[in-house]
Amino acid sequence: MKMPEKIALWLQFNIYLITLDGYPPISFISGDNKTIMEPDVRWQLAVDTIDRCLVAGLMDVWNEGWMRENGLENYLALVNALAQHNPFNFQIPSDSAIYWIEPLLCSTDLCKYLVSKYELQKFEGHTICYPFMKEIEKIFEENGVGWKNSPLVDIRKE
Fold first, then answer.
1. In the chain, where are the structural domains located?
2. How far apart, in whole angstroms, are the C-alpha atoms of residue 81 and residue 93?
């Protein structure tokens, strides 16, 4: 596994989570992720993870109507908006906040299949399912968004 174990565990949990319901992008900033990284690193990881999952067909944007209403023609436009709006530096309500709290990310059939195949519901929050993560990393690689230690989409630090 190329991905650091703390990130793999965090990703595994978030992939499982989106199979339960639609979640806004801000959910990728919170949780255990906050205990292991500085805010800018968490922001970058959230943007890159959402990008990877969208490109790899594991995740989709549930409320496409919201996307059109806000001038976002595709998922790449959403990822770029997330990279341009610091989730740790906005007041609600604001134009910046809408990108992090209004779109809902949901799992695809592929994601649901993999979560079911590896029975992720049986894994506790501190246990990695290595076969699952190996398959996730393979899917990322096949889609040109494999794990690397440099950003996929640069965030705009303020």
1. 5-142
2. 16
